[in-house]
Each structure stands twice: as C-alpha cells, then as structure tokens.
Amino acid sequence: MQNNKRPTALVLMLVLVLFGWLTTSRADRAATAKEPDSYQELQLFTDVLSIIRRSYVEEVSVKDLVHGAVNGMLASLDPHSSFLPPEMYKEMKIDTSGEFGGLGIEITIRDGILTIVSPIEGTPADRAGLLAGDMIVKIGDRFTKDMTIMEAVKLMRGPKGTKITISVMRESFAKPIEFEIVREIIKVKSIKARTLEDNFGYVRITQFQERTHDDLIRALTELKKENQGTLDGLVLDLRNNPGGLLDQAVKVSNSFLDKGLIVYTEGREEGSQMQFTARSAGTEPDYPIVVLINGGSASASEIVAGALQDNDRAVILGTRSFGKGSVQTIIPMSEDSGLRLTTARYFTPSGRSIQAKGIVPDIEVKPMEIKEVKGIKGVREKDLANHIDSPGVEKPTPSEEHKDLRFSLDEKAQQDYQLLRALDLLKGWQILKNLNGNAA
Question: What is the DSSP string of 396-417?
Fold first, then answer.
C-alpha cells in the first residue's frame, strides 16, 4: 500500500503545480487558492489518473499519462496552443532561425481538418504543387482525423532524401490525390527582391524570421542602387506568407511608417497587453506601395498589411487573407520541453480584430491564368496597303515589327496576373503624379 501512495502523491503534486502555473498569473495565484471548484475538478483528474495506473490493461508510465493530459487540455483551447516535447521544442527554435528539415509547409486545424496555411516558396511542398487551403487527409498510412498539429509535423519531418506520401483534398478534386514528396533541409530565405521595371521594385517576404527586417533593409538599399538611388514605387508581396515573429512584423511595418500605431494586443495578463508605435528614424521615402495578399497570408503578414492599410501607407491588392489574429507565447518548461500558448489577440491600428475574418484588400484581384490569344488579329493603319509613314521614322524590319513589346519581366512574373495589376497601379500612380506636377 505504501508503495502505491508515494507515486500517487508525487503525481498529484506535479499536476497541481502544472495546473496552477498554466491557469493563473503570479498576481492571481492567491485568488485561485480561494476557488475550491478548481480543486474539485482537479480531484476528478487525479482519480482518473489513479484508476488508469491501477486498472488499465497494460502498465502506462506517469509521464505518458501527464503528457497526454496536457495535450488534451491544450487541444480543447484552440488550434494554435500545443505542448512541445523536447524534440519539437528544439525544432521550433530552429524554424524561426530559417533552417529545418521537412517538406516546407505551414499547417493549421480548420474546422477540425488539417489544412495547409501556405507552402513555403521554393520548398519540396511548393514544387510538388501543394496550395494554401489544401486539406491533408492522410500522412503516410495514418489518417489525420483528430490528429494534432504537433503529431502531423512530427510525421512529416524526417531525414533529408527520405520520401513521404500525403493525401490531399482540394475543392477542385473529385477525390483525394496522393503527393509523393522527398524531404529536404529547408533553408528559407525570407526576403527576395528584384527590379520589375526602371525605378519600380519588388520585394517578397516568405516568412518573418529573426533576420527578416535586416534582410529587408539590405534588399531595399540594393534596389535603390540599381535605380539611380530612388524608387518610384514598390510591390510588397506577402502572398502565402504564413507569418512568424511578431517583433519582425512590427519592424517591417516601421520601415514604411514614420508615425502612427502599428498593432496592439489584448490578453488577460498584463504582459500580453502591448502597443507598438512607429518611429520616424530609418523610415523609407514616401514612395507608393502596393501590398499583395491572399488566403495564405497569415498572422505576422496580416499585421503588416493591416498596419499599412489603416495608416493609408499602401494599397492592399489580392484576395482576403487567412485570418489568424491571435498571439502565441512560447514558454520554456522542464526537461527542455515548451508550451505554445495563445495569450492575446492582436488588433490593427483602427481597432479591427481580423481573427477568423482576415484582411480585406482595397482592390480585390483574383489569380488568373494568362494565355495568349492566337488567330485573332486586328487591322490597324500600318497594315493598310500604301499607308503613309510618320515623318522621320524609319520603317521597321519584319522582326522588329513583331517583337514582343511587353516589359522585361521574367516568364513567371509575366504570368502572375496579380503582380501585373499591382505594377499597372504603380505606373498609373506615377503618371498621375507627373500630370499633377506639370499642371499650371
């Protein structure tokens, strides 16, 4: 009898400490002690734990039972709160540094279904054709029903070069389709930049990592060097950006704002009530900005889009964003484990909570496939026999006459309808600015 009492007492002590630490702040612990109902519910837990240890058909370790209870407790809260065992906690810290092993997708639970928030550009998942909104119904030989995010991540992670098959359902599919993907060491470069046309820049942010803001400043500096020291406009592409670090989203927003509120958060604890305001130091010049978003733009990318939209600093173009308006805090636990807990909601400067709503673009532009229409040719003056040429203009050679006059974008960009519309908007902006500047 004595041997049974001691382990049970230790388990009870562990659970009491864990329960109290998770559900109360330091300031509230004294108040919690006055709530007998909490301890009555806790007694039910310890009774069940004791019965399982005594009567379950097979012996189960106390550690496994406590971890299972913690996972179940967090799963009942929201899709983003989870317990991180040592292995997952270590990988989580690696993720934010921009290098990890796996497929290259951000996932969540939506309506009880494991869903892809977005594939990370240039990763195996992206190359395989996975899309934001795809529902993962099976990983290997395991169905994902009732599977937690952490379980799914653990299954999809693995050594470089190993294969995994996932079954995906999409709105356009009649039935789930299998994708065989080879795992890689994912090294995510969070910033990609280039010049679209003279004096018009393009910056894509794939994730908000530890170095994102510094990489952004370097990219903008290089773009300005390429364009005689200035930019006439910028396309900031946040499509399929699943988010990342809050402080990096604030710093990126601050790069384009010289004043005004960026974002504020509200939670139960004092430390979760924060407010971030832009400062004028280091702000980019006031060139026009078009921000691209879509259903794969989540969390930190929505903070940036909301801040620039509410401060009238940018036009938001694309489709409604994902709608993740909650803040998760990573809390170190014993044995090198961690707790990922939703501790606050964030709000855009105008007081909007985008939780489950998303950022609505100022100009809705859905992605479209661009195809050249062949066989239809209009007749113009130059096509008429014996037409008169303009004075002082040499008649073009046949090769020059039929030359592709589209601007010098790469082939992929020329097929990106949303990007083309963003560039058109910037060019129109510049034309109007020049017209107003020349007005008498």
Answer: PPHHHHT---S-S--HHHHT-H
* H/E stretch holding 82: strand 82-84
The distance from CA 407 to its chain's CA centroid, rounded to whole angstroms, is 31
**Identity (one letter) of the amino acid at 230?**
T
Q: How many domains does the chain have?
A: 3
342: domain range? 191-364
The answer to whether residues 217 and 341 belong to one domain is yes
Q: State which amino acid sits at residue 78.
A: D
- pLDDT tens for each residue of 42-100: 899 999 999 999 999 999 999 999 999 999 999 899 988 999 988 888 877 766 555 66
pLDDT, tens digit (0-9, with 9 covering 90-100), for 265-321 = 999 998 899 999 999 999 999 999 999 999 999 999 999 999 999 999 999 999 999
Residue 139 DSSP SS3: strand
Instruction: Give alpha helix (H) positions in 80-235.
Output: 86-97, 124-128, 149-156, 212-226
Pairing of strands 163-169, 177-182: antiparallel
- Identify whether residues 344 and 210 lie together within a single domain: yes
> Does 269 share its domain with 198?
yes
Alpha-carbon span 82 to 69, nearest angstrom: 12
Q: Which residues are catalytic?
A: 299, 310, 324
| Burial of 65 (C-beta count, 10 Å sphere; 0-12/13-18/19+) | middle
Q: Which residue, chain included where needed, has tokens 């020329």?
A: 414
Let me know if 352 is exposed, middle or buried by CB neighbors in 10 A (0-12, 13-18, 19+).
middle
Residue 385 lies in a domain: no
- Which CATH number covers residue 281? 3.90.226.10
pTM: 0.77
DSSP annotation of 269 reads: S
Same domain flag for 106 and 136: yes
Is residue 356 one of the residues assigned to a domain?
yes
